[in-house]
Amino acid sequence: MNHILSLNSPLQSIFWSKTNTLPKQILLIVAGVMLLALSAHISIPLQPVPLTFQSATVVFVGMAYGARLGAFTLTTYLIAGLIGLPVFADTESHLVFGPTAGYLIGFLPAAALSGYLAQKGWARTIIRSFIASCLGASVIFLCGVTVLSQFVGLHQAIAFGLMPFIITEPMKLFTTSLIVPKLWKK
């Protein structure tokens, strides 16, 4: 039975048969949202953009779930945050409309792009997985710096919204790239 969420992705077939069932997909979405929420709360409180594991987790979810299910998972995550569930890094300040909103906005296209690249074979080796991860994370940072620049100017947005992550982000993405190819070999 095909559902709107169905698409060939590795994580769907690891725990269950390749038959796409709605309960299985809902469970994967809930698990993805919980993983994203957890990654948001593991952070180093830099200002104005905290260092979290969200971007690497967004890319991981996209690459593990595939483009469509990854996008549905990120949409669910963003809706959960919009309605007030404590899934974002800073649940007190309603970041959805603040200086860091661009990073959240970038999550959805980043997961879709990463998932698409994974489905096209970019998740089968560590190197290609790393490149796909970097492309997905670039979408997040492009959106994030663009919105942040509206609040603090472009120079400051780059200085505070990109530069602190130049070393840490590739390390997180490389870790993701070590895991993802194992999922696609199942």
Automatic annotation (TrEMBL):
Organism in which the protein naturally occurs: Aquicella lusitana
Translocase keyword on record: no
The protein, known as: Biotin transporter
Gene Ontology terms for molecular function: biotin transmembrane transporter activity
GO cellular component terms, A-Z: plasma membrane
InterPro entries: BioY
Source organism phylogeny: Bacteria, Pseudomonadati, Pseudomonadota, Gammaproteobacteria, Legionellales
Localization per record: Cell membrane
PANTHER family named among the record's database cross-references: BIOTIN TRANSPORTER BIOY
Entry's family note: Belongs to the BioY family.
Keyword tags: Cell membrane, Membrane, Transmembrane, Transmembrane helix, Transport
Membrane-topology descriptor: Multi-pass membrane protein
Coiled coil spans: none
Domain of life: Bacteria
